[in-house]
Amino acid sequence: MPAVSKGDGMRGLAVFISDIRNCKSKEAEIKRINKELANIRSKFKGDKALDGYSKKKYVCKLLFIFLLGHDIDFGHMEAVNLLSSNKYTEKQIGYLFISVLVNSNSELIRLINNAIKNDLSSRNPTFMCLALHCIANVGSREMAEAFAGEIPRILVAGDTMDSVKQSAALCLLRLYKASPDLVLMGEWTSRVVHLLNDQHMGVVTAAISLITCLSSKNPDEFKTCVSLAVSRLSRIVSSASTDLQDYTYYFVPAPWLSCKLLRLLQCYPPPEDGAVKGRLVECLETILNKAQEPPKSKKVQHSNAKNAILFEAISLIIHYDSEPNLLVRACNQLGQFLQHRETNLRYLALESMCTLASSEFSHEAVKTHIETVINALKTERDVSVRQRAADLLYAMCDRSNAKQIVAEMLSYLETADYSIREEMVLKVAILAEKYAVDYSWYVDTILNLIRIAGDYVSEEVWYRVIQIVINRDDVQGYAAKTVFEALQAPACHENMVKVGGYILGEFGNLIAGDPRSSPLVQFNLLHSKFHLCSVPTRALLLSAYIKFINLFPETKATIQEVLRSDSQIRNSDVELQQRAVEYLKLSSIASTDVLATVLEEMPPFPERESSILAKLKKKKGPGAVSVELEDGKERGECVNFNPKPQRTSTPSPSADLLGLRSTAPASGATPSAGSLLVDVFSEAGPSATSAGVNDDGFLRFVCKNNGVLFENQLLQIGIKSEYRQNLGRMYLFYGNKTSVQFVSFNTTLNVQTKTVEPLVEGGAQVQQVINIECLTDFIDAPLLNIKFRYGGALQNISLKLPVTINKFFQPTEMAAADFFQRWKQLSQPQQEAQKIFKASHGMDTEVLKAKLLGLGTALLENVDPNPENYVCAGVIQTKAQQVGCLLRLEPNAQAQMYRLTLRSSKDTVSQRVCDLLAEQF
Amino acid sequence: MIGGLFIYNHKGEVLISRVYRDDIGKGPFPNCFHKVGCTESYRMRNAVDAFRVNVIHARQQVRSPVTNIARTSFFHVKRSNIWLAAVTKQNVNAAMVFEFLYKMCDVMTAYFGKISEENIKNNFVLIYELLDEILDFGYPQNSETGALKTFITQTGIKSQSKEEQSQITSQVTGQIGWRREGIKYRRNELFLDVLESVNLLMSPQGQVLSAHVSGRVVMKSYLSGMPECKFGMNDKIVIDKQGKGGATEEQSIAIDDCTFHQCVRLSKFDAERSISFIPPDGECELMRYRTTKDIILPFRVIPLVREVGRTKLEVKVVIKSNFKPSLLAQKIEVRIPTPLNTSGVQVICMKGKAKYKASENAIVWKIKRMAGMKESQISAEIELLPTNDKKKWARPPISMNFEVPFAPSGLKVRYLKVFEPKLNYSDHDVIKWVRYIGRSGIYETRC
């Protein structure tokens, strides 16, 4: 530091500050400041030039006033003048003022930049440092523009002092973080990397921060740093604590530098060069060995520094994930820390172990600590540590210990902190599902979960349990019984009522044999909860009631009585009222057969990613990658809920029974819940989720009328259509999947349609109805153009509407003789169309039948002499004429081939239907 | 009702804390330390801290006298460096709370003079005693200084005879709680002060943008017995009712609204608009009123501001007095705000003294006295420091203070009659004094 001039005390400043400190009230303070400001203004205005000392003093006062929270709008010029002073203190105050107060003021910036340039090019290291600090402190784009080229030169120049090099490296780092596009390393790269070999440890420490940041952006350019870093690290690690003099901190050699080196290595994969790798492994082993040594000092700083290096080394080991020996050693080391009396260490150990658990090498080693972790979950005083313990339990869970872990987590849940309950619930739900060996255990666990932490059980969890119960025949009876028992508790959570209502409505019959759970008892139990529930739950219960009528005709009178009561049929809530009225009518008008069809058991749900997992991922944010990876690994062995063969019948109204259609859009369900709903309704095959190609969507609709036509990140278009003779009606549902409004939403069809609402609210759905009349046979489908604004961008989507000629089929039943007579009548070559093609899907009989039925024709049994073959007949209704159409499909199971023959009274029709159908099998 | 009352010094330390209800302090107050399961007294501290943190030490100066923090309302008034804050959790009448706070200030002033930290510290016991008396479970009680002084004394325990005690009781609980019986004076004397403050906002061109007078009639009486008084003034309604035929030379005034001391019989005022009362002994504020029509503006300010380039400003201000030449205005002070980047000021004035006060960012021009129908002038040159701030100077209005010996509203006392049927003195024997003082309130002219 240069010699301090004698007038450095700045007595005036001290007096001013003590005056301010002594002010009794805010008003007095403001008065004193006003007085001082006026004084400074008059001094700055004064004709005679101020000397450096007083300039510095007044600028200092201004700075102080500014830092007290008052606006300063003058004095910048004086501060800039100070920059050109030769005295260190004056220059320093000038730079301080500039760093704190300067904004991108065009006229001054030029002057300031000039002064900084002068200082940078001066040979005085302190001045250079001051200038560099100022650049870093301001760190604006303008600064970067002006100096981004200059600083690397200073950094690598041979004659630069070490302290200046340090400052330059950190300054460059700051500029790079602020505006990465302006800092171009290019030719300097290799020389910067070689700073790792610098004699001066300070320079290395500063440079390594810069290199870490740069290499995380473009790792390839800095690849060479790996070997340098490894050699540097090994030199530090193997050195005795006395070797490094100033850079030994409580007997630990250069802890900061070591940490930074280890962190830099984490940007790269394990070194390929065997020698380098061997050296690195040696280093890591040494670090692990050192951790075992008795501490050289009792001071906390010593153990902190040592552990910092250790944890960084463990992170590196986990990052490499290739050294089983090291991973296990790291795991054992962490295991020791799990019982350390230092809370921070326990936290870090749990956190690191969590990542270790996902490595295949150390998973088993981590599992040995299960008791300790469970103990931590129970006894730890700090909530964040308990949270980590819960995370670790989740991570280390596999089939062997799932039961124990889930049980522990459940018991902990009862006393868990509110802040982590929801996450815990999700975790328990996922583990229970993933590692379920028998489903009764799964059902028990989830019901327990709802009982213990009902408020924190999100929708997804109970949706999932219902999906699983419905998809698994073997667990349904048990589920019904358990739910029935759970509902008998005097106070049970609403989610429990939801699950109970749904399951008893579907499978109540399975336990109705027992007199203790006779239909009426079941109903009364459910109904006793009815009044305590919210509207969505009540709606669900009403659906359960109507299902009861179907399951147990003897309850019909009682339930009708309930539905008829004023509190239902005149309910102020429109959804409940509508349900009550509709169900009442349905139960009194429809015959048992109809009722049985309408209210038949829910079809199984298509299998897909668990919505709960999706939710947990969302909750955890990008940090949950490890969970995801692990999940991918485990998927192979996790239990499969086999989807039953795809059914393609039109969905019965009972699809509504889920009671979700009304609730979800209205309550602004989360996107994940939204996608869940869509899947429930669409009954789409596996390809439905990946719909996106317009034609693909189109072809899927040849044999079915309802489903999702189109879906991308923004928009989902659902379709529901019905046809009768030559007329059709199509409902298009435009669902906004985002939370933002679509503006100027507009659809055009080359056919006339009713217009849609121009706005689609976020998460909302609008409906459009299209009436279709088939005038004559056709090949091309109508095109639908959708335009809307999302945010600022105009979106344009073009789709083929799935209107095909076969939609206008009227099925015709006929006997075998009849069929062959007609078949022969249509024997002219142009009337027949034939195709032989390879099967693109499985040749399942049921699926084929369903598809043929979906086509709209009548499937004629016992017509073809070969029972393997399928024969269909139908009449296509157009306004102009009716076209009779006969179909024969001959599958060849060995060759996986089909032969499809179509005969109709019009050649174009045969050709078109044949083309359409050929794509379907 | 008021839940508690706190007095703070300028640092935010609590000098007096009196809690009347438990509901306050149940935060949770933002910015305050809050622990679950804390004790009652700790929670009370919470409300105390909330006010300190959010009002006294607020980052931005709090200008509203009512602050709502965590569903708790804090009403505060400030006397020099002392903050008085009434706290409540309920939906109280804010006007009532402020009336009470002002009254409390009056009572304290009457007991120990100026309200200052030192005085409050020296009178802890007295203040708590007063608070016990004038506020009961948060409901304001008798706060008449005269009555309070009979039984809350500063001179230690004065043994009172049973008779005296019962007399106090009967007075405080009786119909005329503000006056005790058996007062005797050798000279029956009576002073009446009409104190007005005139508020004005005027455009640079001399157009009145808003103006009103708020006035008080203060009476100091030294009368024997229980005298019945009747007060008459030139109220327009009364004058119009009486003198239909006779052209009164007196101007009558329209009073917008008025409030009376509790001794005035309101029923009589409502019926015949006559003000009759039995006055308390000593000083009391008989009525308060407000007028907005036909106000005599004692001074006219004519400003002239010229910006000469970026670094100079020329200001010329002329004041004209607008009342009878025989009257003298006193304590005249004109305050001319200067821009925030003023670096130097030169002032020339014909009369009085003018000075640039940097700490207040204003030129202050003081004139000791000035007769009516005169005019005076000041001119100033203000040098400015060029700043890089593009903001234009907001030109705050020029304000003025003065004191004139007449009532700017035009109010005149017509009579004050005293009847004491039991004692042998008549209206003529009472010596009466009337004084008018008009002061400036916020008296501003834009420039």
UniProtKB/TrEMBL annotation, chain A:
Name the segments for region: Disordered.
636-666
GO MF entry, a single one: clathrin adaptor activity
InterPro entries assigned = Adaptor_Complx_Large_Subunit, AP2_complex_asu, ARM-like, ARM-type_fold, Clathrin/coatomer_adapt-like_N, Clathrin_a-adaptin_app_sub_C, Clathrin_a/b/g-adaptin_app_Ig, Clathrin_app_Ig-like_sf
Q: What is the topology of this protein in the membrane according to its UniProt annotation?
A: Peripheral membrane protein
Q: What keywords tag this UniProt record?
A: Cell membrane, Coated pit, Endocytosis, Membrane, Protein transport, Transport
Q: Which SUPFAM superfamilies match?
A: ARM repeat, Clathrin adaptor appendage domain, Subdomain of clathrin and coatomer appendage domain
The answer, when asked if Transport is one of the entry's keywords, is yes
The terms describing its cellular component in GO are:
AP-2 adaptor complex
Extract the SMART domains matched here: Alpha_adaptinC2
**Ligand binding (a 1,2-diacyl-sn-glycero-3-phospho-(1D-myo-inositol-3,4,5-trisphosphate)):** R11, G12, K43, Y53, K57, Y58, V59, C60, K61
> Which residue ranges does the record assign to the Clathrin adaptor alpha/beta/gamma-adaptin appendage Ig-like subdomain domain?
699-802
Q: How does it assemble?
A: Adaptor protein complex 2 (AP-2) is a heterotetramer composed of two large adaptins (alpha-type subunit AP2A1 or AP2A2 and beta-type subunit AP2B1), a medium adaptin (mu-type subunit AP2M1) and a small adaptin (sigma-type subunit AP2S1).
Family from the record: Belongs to the adaptor complexes large subunit family.
The free-text function statement in the UniProt record for this protein reads: Component of the adaptor protein complex 2 (AP-2). Adaptor protein complexes function in protein transport via transport vesicles in different membrane traffic pathways. Adaptor protein complexes are vesicle coat components and appear to be involved in cargo selection and vesicle formation. AP-2 is involved in clathrin-dependent endocytosis in which cargo proteins are incorporated into vesicles surrounded by clathrin (clathrin-coated vesicles, CCVs) which are destined for fusion with the early endosome.
Listed name of the protein: AP-2 complex subunit alpha
What species is given as this protein's source? Oncorhynchus mykiss (Rainbow trout)
**Lineage summary:** Eukaryota, Metazoa, Chordata, Craniata, Vertebrata
TrEMBL record, chain B:
* Topology of the protein relative to the lipid bilayer: Peripheral membrane protein
Q: Which residues bind a 1,2-diacyl-sn-glycero-3-phospho-(1D-myo-inositol-3,4,5-trisphosphate)?
A: K353, K355, K357, K366, K368
Q: Which InterPro entries match?
A: Adaptor_comp_med_subunit, AP2_Mu_C_sf, AP2_Mu_N, Clathrin_mu, Clathrin_mu_CS, Longin-like_dom_sf, MHD, Mu2_C
Q: Does the keyword Magnesium apply?
A: no
List the record's Gene Ontology CC terms alphabetically: clathrin adaptor complex; clathrin-coated pit; plasma membrane
Domain MHD residue range list: 187-446
Cite the GO molecular-function annotations of the record: lipid binding
Name its GO BP terms in alphabetical order: endocytosis; intracellular protein transport
Q: Which PROSITE patterns match?
A: CLAT_ADAPTOR_M_1, MHD
Principal subcellular localization: membrane
What is the top-level taxon of the source organism?
Eukaryota
Q: Which UniProt keywords apply?
A: Cell membrane, Coated pit, Endocytosis, Lipid-binding, Membrane, Protein transport, Transport
User: Where, by residue number, does the polypeptide cross the bilayer?
Assistant: none
> Where, subcellularly, is it found?
Cell membrane; Membrane, Coated pit
Which PANTHER family does the record cross-reference, listed alphabetically? AP COMPLEX SUBUNIT MU
So what family is this one in? Belongs to the adaptor complexes medium subunit family.
Record protein name field? MHD domain-containing protein
